[in-house]
Specification:
Largest sheet of chain A: 9 strands, mixed
CATH topology of chain A: Peroxisomal Thiolase, Chain A, domain 1
CATH class of chain A: Alpha Beta
CATH architecture of chain A: 3-Layer(aba) Sandwich
CATH superfamily of chain A: Thiolase/Chalcone synthase
Shape of chain A: globular
Largest interface: A-B, 36 and 37 residues
Number of strands of chain A: 11
Order of helices and strands of chain A: EHEHHEHEHHHHHEEEHEHEHHHHEE
Number of strands of chain B: 8
Bound molecules: zinc ion
Helix content of chain A: 25-40%
Helix content of chain B: under 10%
Oligomer: heterodimer
Structural class of chain B: mainly beta
Radius of gyration of chain A: 20 Å
Radius of gyration of chain B: 17 Å
Number of domains of chain B: 2
Chain lengths: 424, 145
Protein backbone atom coordinates (compact mmCIF):
# COMPACT_ATOMS: atom_id res chain seq x y z
CA UNK A 1 0.00 0.00 0.00
CA UNK A 2 1.49 3.30 -1.12
CA UNK A 3 1.28 6.59 0.77
CA UNK A 4 -0.97 9.42 -0.37
CA UNK A 5 0.95 11.70 -2.76
CA UNK A 6 0.09 14.69 -0.61
CA UNK A 7 -1.52 15.16 2.78
CA UNK A 8 -5.29 15.49 3.07
CA UNK A 9 -7.14 17.00 6.04
CA UNK A 10 -10.70 17.07 7.32
CA UNK A 11 -11.37 20.80 7.87
CA UNK A 12 -15.08 20.63 8.71
CA UNK A 13 -17.67 17.92 9.37
CA UNK A 14 -21.26 17.73 10.58
CA UNK A 15 -24.54 15.91 10.17
CA UNK A 16 -28.24 16.58 10.10
CA UNK A 17 -30.36 15.31 12.95
CA UNK A 18 -30.76 11.57 12.31
CA UNK A 19 -34.21 10.11 12.92
CA UNK A 20 -37.60 9.41 11.45
CA UNK A 21 -37.55 12.71 9.58
CA UNK A 22 -39.75 11.83 6.60
CA UNK A 23 -42.16 13.38 5.58
CA UNK A 24 -41.28 16.50 7.61
CA UNK A 25 -37.79 16.48 6.11
CA UNK A 26 -36.66 14.78 2.91
CA UNK A 27 -33.19 14.13 1.46
CA UNK A 28 -33.17 17.62 -0.07
CA UNK A 29 -33.84 19.21 3.34
CA UNK A 30 -31.55 16.98 5.40
CA UNK A 31 -28.63 17.44 3.00
CA UNK A 32 -28.91 21.23 3.26
CA UNK A 33 -29.08 20.95 7.06
CA UNK A 34 -25.91 18.82 7.07
CA UNK A 35 -24.15 21.30 4.77
CA UNK A 36 -25.11 24.32 6.94
CA UNK A 37 -23.90 22.51 10.07
CA UNK A 38 -20.62 21.51 8.39
CA UNK A 39 -19.94 25.08 7.25
CA UNK A 40 -20.55 26.20 10.87
CA UNK A 41 -18.03 23.66 12.14
CA UNK A 42 -15.39 24.83 9.64
CA UNK A 43 -13.49 27.31 11.86
CA UNK A 44 -12.77 29.99 9.27
CA UNK A 45 -15.79 29.23 7.08
CA UNK A 46 -15.89 27.72 3.60
CA UNK A 47 -17.69 28.74 0.44
CA UNK A 48 -18.96 26.68 -2.53
CA UNK A 49 -16.53 28.52 -4.80
CA UNK A 50 -13.61 26.99 -2.85
CA UNK A 51 -14.86 23.45 -3.51
CA UNK A 52 -13.72 21.53 -6.59
CA UNK A 53 -16.00 18.48 -6.54
CA UNK A 54 -18.82 16.66 -4.71
CA UNK A 55 -18.52 12.94 -3.84
CA UNK A 56 -21.91 11.71 -2.66
CA UNK A 57 -22.76 8.43 -0.94
CA UNK A 58 -26.28 7.09 -1.36
CA UNK A 59 -27.30 3.44 -1.35
CA UNK A 60 -30.63 3.32 -3.01
CA UNK A 61 -32.83 6.36 -3.31
CA UNK A 62 -33.80 4.50 -6.51
CA UNK A 63 -35.71 1.96 -4.40
CA UNK A 64 -36.51 4.09 -1.32
CA UNK A 65 -37.73 7.21 -3.16
CA UNK A 66 -37.71 6.43 -6.91
CA UNK A 67 -34.88 8.94 -7.30
CA UNK A 68 -31.66 8.17 -9.13
CA UNK A 69 -28.98 10.58 -10.33
CA UNK A 70 -28.72 12.26 -6.96
CA UNK A 71 -25.27 13.84 -7.00
CA UNK A 72 -26.03 16.83 -9.27
CA UNK A 73 -29.33 17.32 -7.43
CA UNK A 74 -27.47 17.66 -4.11
CA UNK A 75 -24.63 19.70 -5.70
CA UNK A 76 -27.12 22.21 -7.07
CA UNK A 77 -28.70 22.76 -3.63
CA UNK A 78 -25.40 23.97 -2.15
CA UNK A 79 -24.06 26.01 -5.06
CA UNK A 80 -21.62 23.46 -6.46
CA UNK A 81 -22.87 23.22 -10.06
CA UNK A 82 -21.33 23.19 -12.71
CA UNK A 83 -18.53 21.34 -10.89
CA UNK A 84 -18.22 17.55 -11.07
CA UNK A 85 -20.68 15.67 -8.85
CA UNK A 86 -20.85 11.88 -8.62
CA UNK A 87 -22.74 9.34 -6.56
CA UNK A 88 -21.04 6.26 -5.08
CA UNK A 89 -22.84 3.05 -4.16
CA UNK A 90 -21.55 0.30 -1.89
CA UNK A 91 -24.69 -0.47 0.11
CA UNK A 92 -24.22 0.73 3.72
CA UNK A 93 -20.61 1.68 2.87
CA UNK A 94 -21.66 4.08 0.09
CA UNK A 95 -20.41 7.28 1.72
CA UNK A 96 -17.34 5.49 3.09
CA UNK A 97 -16.38 4.77 -0.51
CA UNK A 98 -17.22 8.35 -1.53
CA UNK A 99 -14.92 9.62 1.23
CA UNK A 100 -12.00 7.46 0.10
CA UNK A 101 -12.43 8.59 -3.52
CA UNK A 102 -12.46 12.22 -2.40
CA UNK A 103 -9.27 11.73 -0.38
CA UNK A 104 -7.53 10.15 -3.38
CA UNK A 105 -8.70 12.94 -5.71
CA UNK A 106 -6.88 15.48 -3.53
CA UNK A 107 -3.83 13.25 -3.03
CA UNK A 108 -3.58 12.88 -6.81
CA UNK A 109 -3.46 16.64 -7.31
CA UNK A 110 -6.65 16.78 -9.40
CA UNK A 111 -8.56 18.57 -6.61
CA UNK A 112 -7.54 20.90 -3.76
CA UNK A 113 -10.77 21.07 -1.75
CA UNK A 114 -13.72 18.66 -1.95
CA UNK A 115 -17.06 18.01 -0.30
CA UNK A 116 -18.09 14.49 0.72
CA UNK A 117 -21.76 13.91 1.35
CA UNK A 118 -23.99 11.06 2.40
CA UNK A 119 -27.76 11.01 2.35
CA UNK A 120 -30.57 8.48 2.74
CA UNK A 121 -34.31 8.85 3.24
CA UNK A 122 -35.59 5.41 4.28
CA UNK A 123 -38.83 5.99 6.16
CA UNK A 124 -40.81 6.75 3.01
CA UNK A 125 -41.31 2.97 2.84
CA UNK A 126 -42.85 0.81 5.56
CA UNK A 127 -40.67 -1.75 7.37
CA UNK A 128 -41.43 -4.46 4.83
CA UNK A 129 -40.52 -2.11 1.98
CA UNK A 130 -37.27 -1.07 3.67
CA UNK A 131 -36.36 -4.71 4.31
CA UNK A 132 -36.99 -5.47 0.64
CA UNK A 133 -34.85 -2.54 -0.56
CA UNK A 134 -32.00 -3.43 1.81
CA UNK A 135 -32.13 -7.03 0.56
CA UNK A 136 -30.73 -5.71 -2.74
CA UNK A 137 -27.38 -5.39 -0.91
CA UNK A 138 -27.27 -9.18 -0.45
CA UNK A 139 -26.98 -11.72 -3.27
CA UNK A 140 -30.39 -11.78 -4.95
CA UNK A 141 -29.40 -14.72 -7.18
CA UNK A 142 -28.24 -17.18 -4.52
CA UNK A 143 -29.10 -15.88 -1.02
CA UNK A 144 -32.49 -14.21 -1.12
CA UNK A 145 -34.51 -17.31 -2.05
CA UNK A 146 -32.63 -19.29 0.60
CA UNK A 147 -34.46 -16.98 3.03
CA UNK A 148 -31.60 -14.58 3.80
CA UNK A 149 -32.48 -11.25 5.40
CA UNK A 150 -29.93 -8.76 6.78
CA UNK A 151 -30.67 -9.66 10.39
CA UNK A 152 -30.56 -13.30 9.25
CA UNK A 153 -27.11 -13.02 7.67
CA UNK A 154 -25.64 -11.30 10.74
CA UNK A 155 -27.50 -13.79 12.95
CA UNK A 156 -25.72 -16.60 11.08
CA UNK A 157 -22.42 -14.82 11.82
CA UNK A 158 -23.46 -14.44 15.47
CA UNK A 159 -24.47 -18.09 15.72
CA UNK A 160 -21.11 -19.18 14.28
CA UNK A 161 -19.35 -16.86 16.78
CA UNK A 162 -21.39 -18.31 19.66
CA UNK A 163 -20.51 -21.83 18.51
CA UNK A 164 -16.79 -21.20 18.02
CA UNK A 165 -16.03 -18.90 20.98
CA UNK A 166 -18.84 -19.43 23.47
CA UNK A 167 -20.15 -15.90 23.02
CA UNK A 168 -23.57 -15.34 24.64
CA UNK A 169 -26.60 -13.10 24.08
CA UNK A 170 -25.56 -11.19 27.22
CA UNK A 171 -22.24 -10.31 25.59
CA UNK A 172 -24.19 -8.72 22.73
CA UNK A 173 -26.59 -6.93 25.11
CA UNK A 174 -23.63 -5.17 26.77
CA UNK A 175 -22.97 -3.61 23.36
CA UNK A 176 -26.60 -2.49 23.06
CA UNK A 177 -26.68 -1.05 26.60
CA UNK A 178 -23.57 1.03 25.87
CA UNK A 179 -25.11 2.25 22.60
CA UNK A 180 -28.15 3.59 24.48
CA UNK A 181 -25.93 5.27 27.09
CA UNK A 182 -24.04 7.07 24.32
CA UNK A 183 -27.07 7.92 22.16
CA UNK A 184 -28.52 9.59 25.26
CA UNK A 185 -25.66 12.12 25.06
CA UNK A 186 -26.00 12.83 21.33
CA UNK A 187 -28.49 15.55 20.31
CA UNK A 188 -28.20 14.37 16.68
CA UNK A 189 -29.12 10.75 17.50
CA UNK A 190 -32.38 9.10 16.53
CA UNK A 191 -32.81 7.33 19.90
CA UNK A 192 -31.79 9.48 22.86
CA UNK A 193 -33.43 7.49 25.64
CA UNK A 194 -31.38 5.18 27.81
CA UNK A 195 -32.55 1.60 28.00
CA UNK A 196 -33.76 2.21 31.59
CA UNK A 197 -35.93 5.11 30.32
CA UNK A 198 -37.34 2.90 27.56
CA UNK A 199 -38.20 0.26 30.18
CA UNK A 200 -39.90 2.91 32.39
CA UNK A 201 -41.90 4.17 29.39
CA UNK A 202 -43.10 0.63 28.66
CA UNK A 203 -44.17 0.21 32.30
CA UNK A 204 -46.02 3.55 32.29
CA UNK A 205 -47.79 2.62 29.06
CA UNK A 206 -48.94 -0.65 30.59
CA UNK A 207 -50.25 1.21 33.68
CA UNK A 208 -52.16 3.71 31.49
CA UNK A 209 -53.75 0.91 29.49
CA UNK A 210 -54.65 -1.04 32.60
CA UNK A 211 -52.49 -3.95 31.40
CA UNK A 212 -50.29 -6.09 33.70
CA UNK A 213 -47.15 -4.08 34.49
CA UNK A 214 -43.99 -5.96 33.46
CA UNK A 215 -41.41 -6.51 36.19
CA UNK A 216 -37.80 -6.49 35.04
CA UNK A 217 -34.90 -6.82 37.49
CA UNK A 218 -32.52 -4.93 35.22
CA UNK A 219 -31.68 -4.28 31.57
CA UNK A 220 -30.57 -7.87 30.98
CA UNK A 221 -33.86 -9.16 32.34
CA UNK A 222 -35.71 -6.83 29.94
CA UNK A 223 -33.50 -7.76 26.97
CA UNK A 224 -34.15 -11.46 27.58
CA UNK A 225 -37.92 -10.96 27.86
CA UNK A 226 -40.79 -11.12 25.38
CA UNK A 227 -40.59 -7.33 25.13
CA UNK A 228 -37.43 -7.88 23.09
CA UNK A 229 -38.74 -10.24 20.39
CA UNK A 230 -36.52 -12.60 18.41
CA UNK A 231 -35.91 -11.32 14.87
CA UNK A 232 -33.40 -13.92 13.67
CA UNK A 233 -31.96 -16.27 16.28
CA UNK A 234 -29.81 -15.34 18.18
CA UNK A 235 -30.49 -11.66 17.36
CA UNK A 236 -33.44 -9.86 18.93
CA UNK A 237 -35.00 -6.48 18.18
CA UNK A 238 -32.60 -4.57 20.45
CA UNK A 239 -29.61 -6.17 18.68
CA UNK A 240 -30.62 -4.38 15.45
CA UNK A 241 -29.86 -0.83 14.29
CA UNK A 242 -32.60 1.61 13.31
CA UNK A 243 -34.37 2.67 10.12
CA UNK A 244 -33.23 6.24 9.73
CA UNK A 245 -33.42 9.35 7.56
CA UNK A 246 -30.33 11.53 7.63
CA UNK A 247 -27.46 13.29 5.89
CA UNK A 248 -23.84 14.07 6.70
CA UNK A 249 -21.23 16.36 5.17
CA UNK A 250 -17.43 16.60 5.36
CA UNK A 251 -14.98 19.08 3.82
CA UNK A 252 -11.49 17.91 2.84
CA UNK A 253 -8.53 20.04 1.83
CA UNK A 254 -4.95 19.48 0.73
CA UNK A 255 -2.18 20.44 3.16
CA UNK A 256 -1.52 23.62 1.15
CA UNK A 257 -5.16 24.68 1.49
CA UNK A 258 -6.21 23.26 4.85
CA UNK A 259 -5.06 26.23 6.98
CA UNK A 260 -7.32 28.59 5.02
CA UNK A 261 -10.20 26.86 6.79
CA UNK A 262 -8.85 25.95 10.21
CA UNK A 263 -5.77 26.10 12.38
CA UNK A 264 -6.49 22.56 13.59
CA UNK A 265 -6.88 20.21 10.64
CA UNK A 266 -7.52 16.52 11.32
CA UNK A 267 -5.25 14.54 8.99
CA UNK A 268 -6.40 11.53 7.00
CA UNK A 269 -3.35 9.38 7.67
CA UNK A 270 -4.55 5.99 6.50
CA UNK A 271 -7.27 4.76 4.17
CA UNK A 272 -8.19 1.22 3.20
CA UNK A 273 -10.94 -0.57 1.35
CA UNK A 274 -11.58 -4.30 1.07
CA UNK A 275 -14.01 -6.50 -0.80
CA UNK A 276 -15.36 -10.03 -0.39
CA UNK A 277 -17.91 -12.28 -2.07
CA UNK A 278 -21.39 -10.82 -1.95
CA UNK A 279 -22.71 -14.10 -0.53
CA UNK A 280 -21.85 -15.16 3.00
CA UNK A 281 -21.47 -18.77 1.80
CA UNK A 282 -18.62 -17.88 -0.60
CA UNK A 283 -16.36 -16.11 1.92
CA UNK A 284 -12.68 -16.86 1.38
CA UNK A 285 -11.43 -19.52 3.77
CA UNK A 286 -15.01 -20.12 4.91
CA UNK A 287 -14.70 -17.39 7.57
CA UNK A 288 -18.12 -17.00 9.20
CA UNK A 289 -17.20 -15.42 12.56
CA UNK A 290 -15.83 -12.15 11.14
CA UNK A 291 -15.28 -10.20 7.94
CA UNK A 292 -12.27 -10.73 5.67
CA UNK A 293 -12.90 -7.35 4.01
CA UNK A 294 -12.53 -5.56 7.37
CA UNK A 295 -9.20 -7.31 7.95
CA UNK A 296 -8.02 -6.26 4.47
CA UNK A 297 -9.21 -2.64 4.74
CA UNK A 298 -7.61 -2.34 8.19
CA UNK A 299 -4.35 -3.86 6.94
CA UNK A 300 -4.14 -1.18 4.23
CA UNK A 301 -4.99 1.69 6.58
CA UNK A 302 -2.50 0.52 9.22
CA UNK A 303 0.22 0.09 6.62
CA UNK A 304 -0.36 3.50 5.05
CA UNK A 305 -0.34 5.28 8.43
CA UNK A 306 2.44 3.23 10.00
CA UNK A 307 0.13 2.79 12.99
CA UNK A 308 -1.28 -0.35 14.57
CA UNK A 309 -4.40 -1.35 16.50
CA UNK A 310 -2.77 -0.41 19.83
CA UNK A 311 -2.39 3.22 18.65
CA UNK A 312 -6.10 3.74 17.99
CA UNK A 313 -7.65 5.73 20.88
CA UNK A 314 -11.28 5.84 19.72
CA UNK A 315 -13.20 4.24 16.88
CA UNK A 316 -16.59 4.46 15.27
CA UNK A 317 -17.25 0.92 14.02
CA UNK A 318 -20.09 -0.40 11.90
CA UNK A 319 -22.63 -1.80 14.41
CA UNK A 320 -25.59 -2.47 12.13
CA UNK A 321 -26.15 -5.33 14.59
CA UNK A 322 -24.55 -5.86 18.01
CA UNK A 323 -22.59 -8.85 16.65
CA UNK A 324 -21.15 -6.60 13.92
CA UNK A 325 -19.51 -4.40 16.59
CA UNK A 326 -18.10 -7.44 18.38
CA UNK A 327 -16.69 -8.90 15.14
CA UNK A 328 -15.29 -5.49 14.09
CA UNK A 329 -13.30 -5.16 17.33
CA UNK A 330 -11.67 -8.50 16.53
CA UNK A 331 -11.23 -7.96 12.77
CA UNK A 332 -9.67 -4.51 13.33
CA UNK A 333 -7.08 -6.17 15.57
CA UNK A 334 -8.12 -4.52 18.86
CA UNK A 335 -8.68 -7.98 20.30
CA UNK A 336 -7.86 -11.56 19.27
CA UNK A 337 -10.80 -13.45 17.75
CA UNK A 338 -13.04 -14.60 20.60
CA UNK A 339 -11.55 -12.11 23.09
CA UNK A 340 -13.63 -8.95 22.48
CA UNK A 341 -16.61 -10.01 24.60
CA UNK A 342 -14.57 -10.13 27.82
CA UNK A 343 -13.08 -6.71 27.10
CA UNK A 344 -16.53 -5.26 26.45
CA UNK A 345 -17.84 -6.81 29.67
CA UNK A 346 -14.93 -5.14 31.49
CA UNK A 347 -16.03 -1.74 30.17
CA UNK A 348 -13.04 -1.19 27.89
CA UNK A 349 -15.24 0.16 25.06
CA UNK A 350 -17.29 2.59 27.19
CA UNK A 351 -16.73 6.35 27.08
CA UNK A 352 -14.40 6.15 30.08
CA UNK A 353 -12.80 2.88 28.96
CA UNK A 354 -9.35 2.38 27.47
CA UNK A 355 -10.64 2.58 23.88
CA UNK A 356 -14.12 4.09 23.61
CA UNK A 357 -16.14 2.60 20.74
CA UNK A 358 -19.10 4.29 19.07
CA UNK A 359 -19.33 7.27 21.42
CA UNK A 360 -21.95 8.67 19.02
CA UNK A 361 -24.31 5.83 19.95
CA UNK A 362 -23.35 4.06 16.74
CA UNK A 363 -25.76 2.84 14.12
CA UNK A 364 -27.73 1.28 16.98
CA UNK A 365 -28.96 4.55 18.53
CA UNK A 366 -27.53 7.43 16.49
CA UNK A 367 -29.26 5.68 13.60
CA UNK A 368 -28.35 4.08 10.29
CA UNK A 369 -29.38 6.10 7.21
CA UNK A 370 -27.40 3.61 5.14
CA UNK A 371 -25.83 5.88 2.50
CA UNK A 372 -24.99 8.59 5.07
CA UNK A 373 -23.54 6.28 7.71
CA UNK A 374 -19.87 6.28 6.62
CA UNK A 375 -19.62 10.07 6.66
CA UNK A 376 -21.71 10.23 9.83
CA UNK A 377 -19.06 8.11 11.58
CA UNK A 378 -16.32 10.52 10.43
CA UNK A 379 -18.32 13.41 11.89
CA UNK A 380 -18.15 11.78 15.34
CA UNK A 381 -14.43 11.04 15.09
CA UNK A 382 -13.86 14.67 14.01
CA UNK A 383 -15.88 16.03 16.95
CA UNK A 384 -14.14 13.77 19.48
CA UNK A 385 -10.69 14.69 18.17
CA UNK A 386 -11.58 18.39 18.26
CA UNK A 387 -13.05 18.08 21.76
CA UNK A 388 -16.45 19.42 20.70
CA UNK A 389 -18.72 16.40 21.14
CA UNK A 390 -22.01 17.58 22.64
CA UNK A 391 -23.54 16.98 26.09
CA UNK A 392 -21.65 14.55 28.28
CA UNK A 393 -20.31 12.55 25.35
CA UNK A 394 -16.85 14.05 24.98
CA UNK A 395 -14.12 11.59 25.89
CA UNK A 396 -12.08 13.10 28.72
CA UNK A 397 -8.60 12.41 27.35
CA UNK A 398 -7.05 14.20 24.36
CA UNK A 399 -7.73 12.05 21.31
CA UNK A 400 -4.79 12.19 18.91
CA UNK A 401 -5.63 9.13 16.81
CA UNK A 402 -9.10 7.95 15.76
CA UNK A 403 -10.60 5.45 13.34
CA UNK A 404 -13.79 4.93 11.36
CA UNK A 405 -14.95 1.55 9.99
CA UNK A 406 -17.84 1.30 7.53
CA UNK A 407 -19.32 -1.96 6.18
CA UNK A 408 -21.53 -2.58 3.15
CA UNK A 409 -24.03 -5.43 3.24
CA UNK A 410 -22.93 -8.53 5.12
CA UNK A 411 -19.28 -7.53 4.60
CA UNK A 412 -18.66 -7.50 0.84
CA UNK A 413 -17.42 -3.88 1.02
CA UNK A 414 -15.51 -2.36 3.93
CA UNK A 415 -13.77 1.01 4.33
CA UNK A 416 -11.40 1.85 7.20
CA UNK A 417 -9.92 5.33 7.85
CA UNK A 418 -7.32 6.46 10.37
CA UNK A 419 -7.28 10.10 11.47
CA UNK A 420 -4.47 11.88 13.34
CA UNK A 421 -3.95 15.29 14.91
CA UNK A 422 -0.26 15.20 14.06
CA UNK A 423 1.07 14.97 10.53
CA UNK A 424 2.33 11.46 9.87
CA UNK B 1 -16.22 -24.13 -24.74
CA UNK B 2 -19.35 -24.81 -26.77
CA UNK B 3 -22.46 -22.76 -25.99
CA UNK B 4 -24.18 -25.99 -24.95
CA UNK B 5 -21.68 -26.73 -22.15
CA UNK B 6 -21.17 -23.16 -20.98
CA UNK B 7 -21.58 -22.71 -17.22
CA UNK B 8 -24.41 -20.18 -16.82
CA UNK B 9 -26.82 -19.23 -14.03
CA UNK B 10 -29.86 -20.16 -16.10
CA UNK B 11 -28.58 -23.69 -16.73
CA UNK B 12 -27.82 -24.11 -13.01
CA UNK B 13 -31.41 -23.28 -12.12
CA UNK B 14 -32.72 -25.51 -14.93
CA UNK B 15 -30.70 -28.39 -13.48
CA UNK B 16 -32.19 -27.67 -10.03
CA UNK B 17 -35.69 -27.82 -11.53
CA UNK B 18 -34.73 -31.32 -12.77
CA UNK B 19 -33.58 -32.10 -9.20
CA UNK B 20 -29.95 -32.29 -10.20
CA UNK B 21 -27.30 -30.50 -8.18
CA UNK B 22 -24.69 -29.34 -10.67
CA UNK B 23 -21.52 -27.50 -9.69
CA UNK B 24 -18.55 -26.53 -11.80
CA UNK B 25 -15.19 -28.25 -11.83
CA UNK B 26 -11.93 -26.75 -12.96
CA UNK B 27 -10.12 -28.99 -15.48
CA UNK B 28 -6.78 -27.48 -14.41
CA UNK B 29 -6.77 -27.37 -10.59
CA UNK B 30 -9.82 -29.62 -10.00
CA UNK B 31 -11.43 -27.06 -7.66
CA UNK B 32 -15.20 -27.36 -7.45
CA UNK B 33 -17.49 -24.31 -7.17
CA UNK B 34 -21.10 -24.24 -6.00
CA UNK B 35 -22.96 -22.16 -7.05
CA UNK B 36 -21.13 -22.94 -10.29
CA UNK B 37 -18.85 -20.38 -11.94
CA UNK B 38 -17.70 -20.19 -15.53
CA UNK B 39 -14.28 -19.11 -14.25
CA UNK B 40 -12.75 -21.28 -11.52
CA UNK B 41 -12.68 -19.28 -8.25
CA UNK B 42 -9.12 -20.48 -7.57
CA UNK B 43 -7.29 -20.21 -10.91
CA UNK B 44 -9.79 -18.60 -13.34
CA UNK B 45 -9.62 -21.47 -15.84
CA UNK B 46 -12.82 -22.20 -17.73
CA UNK B 47 -14.84 -24.70 -15.69
CA UNK B 48 -16.99 -27.66 -16.72
CA UNK B 49 -20.24 -29.00 -15.26
CA UNK B 50 -20.07 -31.72 -12.64
CA UNK B 51 -22.88 -33.43 -10.75
CA UNK B 52 -22.39 -33.21 -6.97
CA UNK B 53 -23.19 -35.76 -4.28
CA UNK B 54 -25.70 -33.48 -2.58
CA UNK B 55 -24.24 -34.36 0.81
CA UNK B 56 -22.57 -31.97 3.24
CA UNK B 57 -22.56 -30.49 6.73
CA UNK B 58 -24.23 -27.52 8.43
CA UNK B 59 -21.70 -24.69 8.96
CA UNK B 60 -23.98 -21.99 10.39
CA UNK B 61 -27.64 -20.98 10.42
CA UNK B 62 -30.31 -18.74 11.87
CA UNK B 63 -33.95 -19.35 12.69
CA UNK B 64 -35.62 -16.36 11.11
CA UNK B 65 -38.76 -14.96 12.75
CA UNK B 66 -39.15 -11.82 10.59
CA UNK B 67 -38.66 -13.29 7.16
CA UNK B 68 -37.92 -12.35 3.58
CA UNK B 69 -41.04 -11.82 1.48
CA UNK B 70 -40.22 -14.95 -0.55
CA UNK B 71 -40.61 -16.89 2.72
CA UNK B 72 -43.51 -15.07 4.36
CA UNK B 73 -45.56 -15.77 1.22
CA UNK B 74 -45.03 -19.45 2.02
CA UNK B 75 -46.64 -18.94 5.42
CA UNK B 76 -43.59 -18.41 7.64
CA UNK B 77 -44.01 -15.81 10.39
CA UNK B 78 -43.06 -14.91 13.99
CA UNK B 79 -44.85 -17.98 15.29
CA UNK B 80 -43.52 -20.25 12.54
CA UNK B 81 -39.88 -19.39 11.79
CA UNK B 82 -37.77 -20.94 9.04
CA UNK B 83 -34.07 -21.77 9.07
CA UNK B 84 -31.58 -20.03 6.74
CA UNK B 85 -28.45 -22.17 6.54
CA UNK B 86 -24.95 -22.19 5.09
CA UNK B 87 -23.76 -25.72 4.34
CA UNK B 88 -20.45 -27.05 3.11
CA UNK B 89 -20.77 -29.86 0.60
CA UNK B 90 -18.54 -32.95 0.71
CA UNK B 91 -16.82 -31.58 -2.43
CA UNK B 92 -15.60 -28.56 -0.36
CA UNK B 93 -17.83 -25.81 -1.77
CA UNK B 94 -20.45 -23.98 0.34
CA UNK B 95 -23.92 -22.73 -0.50
CA UNK B 96 -26.93 -21.11 1.22
CA UNK B 97 -30.31 -22.76 1.46
CA UNK B 98 -33.36 -23.26 3.64
CA UNK B 99 -32.90 -26.08 6.17
CA UNK B 100 -36.08 -28.15 6.60
CA UNK B 101 -36.88 -31.20 8.71
CA UNK B 102 -35.67 -29.60 11.96
CA UNK B 103 -37.48 -27.90 14.82
CA UNK B 104 -37.15 -24.33 13.57
CA UNK B 105 -38.32 -22.74 16.83
CA UNK B 106 -35.71 -24.64 18.86
CA UNK B 107 -32.52 -23.31 17.22
CA UNK B 108 -30.36 -24.17 20.24
CA UNK B 109 -31.04 -27.83 19.52
CA UNK B 110 -29.94 -27.75 15.89
CA UNK B 111 -26.35 -29.08 15.91
CA UNK B 112 -23.48 -27.45 14.04
CA UNK B 113 -21.68 -29.80 11.61
CA UNK B 114 -24.82 -31.92 11.36
CA UNK B 115 -24.70 -34.06 8.15
CA UNK B 116 -27.24 -32.73 5.64
CA UNK B 117 -28.46 -33.68 2.20
CA UNK B 118 -29.79 -31.49 -0.54
CA UNK B 119 -33.50 -31.10 -1.21
CA UNK B 120 -35.06 -29.07 -3.99
CA UNK B 121 -37.47 -26.34 -2.92
CA UNK B 122 -39.75 -24.29 -5.14
CA UNK B 123 -41.00 -20.72 -4.81
CA UNK B 124 -43.73 -19.20 -6.93
CA UNK B 125 -42.34 -16.10 -8.64
CA UNK B 126 -45.29 -15.19 -10.87
CA UNK B 127 -47.93 -16.46 -13.29
CA UNK B 128 -47.87 -17.13 -17.02
CA UNK B 129 -50.45 -15.71 -19.49
CA UNK B 130 -52.89 -18.53 -18.74
CA UNK B 131 -52.63 -17.85 -15.01
CA UNK B 132 -50.54 -20.95 -14.28
CA UNK B 133 -47.97 -20.48 -11.50
CA UNK B 134 -44.30 -19.98 -12.47
CA UNK B 135 -41.82 -21.48 -10.03
CA UNK B 136 -38.12 -21.18 -9.40
CA UNK B 137 -36.19 -24.01 -7.78
CA UNK B 138 -33.54 -23.54 -5.13
CA UNK B 139 -31.19 -25.65 -3.12
CA UNK B 140 -32.44 -26.57 0.33
CA UNK B 141 -31.19 -28.99 2.98
CA UNK B 142 -32.53 -31.60 5.38
CA UNK B 143 -30.76 -33.76 7.97
CA UNK B 144 -29.21 -36.88 6.40
CA UNK B 145 -31.37 -39.92 6.97
ZN1 LIG C 1 -8.91 -23.87 -11.12
Amino acid sequence: MKKLNRRVAVVGAAMSKFGINYPRLRSIDMWQEAWINAVKLTDKGISPKDIDELFLGNFTADLFNHQGHMAPQMADLVGLVPKPASRFEGACASSGIAFRQGVMSIASGVNDVVCIGGVEQMNELNTEGVTGALAAAADTTYEYFAGATFPGLYAAIANAHFHEFGTTPKDLWNIAIKAYENGHENPFAQEQHTLKEIMENKKNKAIKRGKPVPEWKDEYDFLGSRSNPMIAYPLRLFDCSLITDGAACVFLASEENAYKYTDNPIWVSGIGQGSASLSLHDRDGGLLTGLNATREAARQAYEMSGLGPKDIQIAEVHDCFTIAELAALEDLGFYEPGKAATAINNGETKRDGIRPINTSGGLKTKGHPVGATGVGQIVEVFKQMRGIAERNRQVKKDIKIGMSHNVGGSGATVVVNIFTKEKI
Amino acid sequence: MSEENLVTVDKYFNFLSEKKLMGSKCPKCEHIDLPPRRLCSKCLSESEWIELSGKGVLKTFSSIYVGAKAMTQKGYNRKKPYVFAVCQMDEGCSVSGQLIGVEEDKPKEIPFDMPVQVVYLKTQTGEDKEGNPIYRWDVGFEPQK
